[in-house]
Amino acid sequence: MAERSKALRSGRSPLLWAWDYTEKLTKAFGSEDFVFDLLLLGMGPDGHTCSLFPGHPLLDETKLKVAPITDSPKFPPERITLTFPTINKARNCLFAICGSSKAEMIQRILKDNDESVPARRVKPHSGSLYWVLDQHSAKNL
Predict the structure, then answer these.
(1) What total number of domains does the chain contain?
(2) CATH classification of the domain holding 35
(3) Do 108 and 138 form a contact (C-beta atoms < 8 A)?
(4) Domain range for residue 52?
(5) Which regions span the lipid bilayer (predicted)?
(6) Helix, strand, coil tally for the chain in percent (to 5)
(7) In a domain, 126, yes or no
(8) Which of 13, 26, 91, 97 is deepest in the core (most CB within 10 A)?
């Protein structure tokens, strides 16, 4: 089976990793304007998805499809992430959420429509958004 993930090597700029991954996606899709059929997403207890964390400047990134992050509040500090413009072009986005530690954020997203929660900003423009929750993460709904 082909390798599906790779750890960032220390000593190489996350910006270079982001450019490299963007090029690989462009090549794989055969277009610079690539669109995912399905993104399977998770969410942290703070409401982050991918590596788009609450209050982080990357929440407002509009030009890059894949962005570097060098100050992640979660280990490891250096990583790359899809940006909201890339995520929201997907035909389908599916969140799979488990655990009571996510219940407050699920309530803020699905019941209160709290736009300050990063995962709430996933809104496919021409696609569908699905939430698959266990009973613990859905306990406040």
Answers:
(1) 1
(2) 3.40.50.1360
(3) no
(4) 14-133
(5) none
(6) 30, 20, 55
(7) yes
(8) 97
